[in-house]
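re: the backbone from monday

yeah here it is again, tokenized this time
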């Protein structure tokens, strides 16, 4: 375990040493995960590699069973679809918070009803009633608690039927968001990886015009497909050639065979585009002559 911790520590220190921006290194989510994965090493160093007999069993489980699992988080660096998953969550987060809030209200209300109608010998506290309500509404049904009175059974039936309909709302919401995000996964991946690379190099999305000028070998103010492919290779996006072509065609709105930094920013970094160039003025409706 100590050898693995040492390897990960050396790797993290080397990446920090070659990073051009210390602030960008600390702000990176993947680097934060790597630092969390080094917790076992910190714990061992703090204990001096000596464990007292009374605490041996608990700390052995902590050091050898629980904390090493954190190393698996390092795999997120290699899983590009993790960016797609985070986009799905961020897209639906506002609606999910509302649904969870409504679910909390329903649980409290139904728990109060169950506590009132059930005999004390069966459900003696409100927390017990809440446990029964949550287990019933999530259709888990452990069976450790079941209603004995007729009103309690009627309320349980209502909760089961209502929860089946209610649970379908967040499931459908997440499914629809996943479908939409999956259709634009290449744009999301390129935007996320580009932002990460620029952050590692000490730049931001506002420096994308400079990035385009660097790969614009023909000095036309635009990138052709080969130049765009070279830029994505330098950014290490990991996209296959056919997906690069599809992404290029989706960015090339006018079909001219080249894209400029404004098209790239407007599609992948809309907030940065509006900060740099402002909102596109709306076209005034043509007045009809009478």
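seq for it, each position gets an aa:
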């Amino acid at each position: 375990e100590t050898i693995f911790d040492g390897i990960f520590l050396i790797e993290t220190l080397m990446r920090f040493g070659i990073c051009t921006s210390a602030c960008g290194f600390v702000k990176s989510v993947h680097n934060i995960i790597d630092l969390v994965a080094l917790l076992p090493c910190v714990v061992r160093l703090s204990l001096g590699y000596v464990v007292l007999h009374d605490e041996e069993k608990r700390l052995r489980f902590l050091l050898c069973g629980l904390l090493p699992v954190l190393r698996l988080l390092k795999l997120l660096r290699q899983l590009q679809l993790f960016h797609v998953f985070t986009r799905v969550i961020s897209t639906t987060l506002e609606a999910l918070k509302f649904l969870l809030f409504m679910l909390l209200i329903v649980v409290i209300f139904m728990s109060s009803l169950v506590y009132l109608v059930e005999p004390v010998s069966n459900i003696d506290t409100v927390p017990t009633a809440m446990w029964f309500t949550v287990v019933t509404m999530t259709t888990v049904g452990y069976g450790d608690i079941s209603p004995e009175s007729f009103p309690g059974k009627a309320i349980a039936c209502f909760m089961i039927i209502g929860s089946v309909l209610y649970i379908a709302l967040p499931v459908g919401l997440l499914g629809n968001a996943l479908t939409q995000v999956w259709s634009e996964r290449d744009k999301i991946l390129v935007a996320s990886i580009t932002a990460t690379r620029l952050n590692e190099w000490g730049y931001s999305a506002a420096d994308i015009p400079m990035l385009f000028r660097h790969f614009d070998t023909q000095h036309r103010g635009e990138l052709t497909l080969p130049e765009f492919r070279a830029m994505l290779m330098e950014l290490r996006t990991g996209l296959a050639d056919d997906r690069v072509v599809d992404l290029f065609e989706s960015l090339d709105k006018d079909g001219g065979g080249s894209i400029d930094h404004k098209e790239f920013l407007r599609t992948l970094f809309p907030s940065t585009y509006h900060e740099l160039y402002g909102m596109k003025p709306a076209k005034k409706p043509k007045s009809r002559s009478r």
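Residues 81-117 form the longest helix (37 residues). The chain is about 70% helix and 0% strand.
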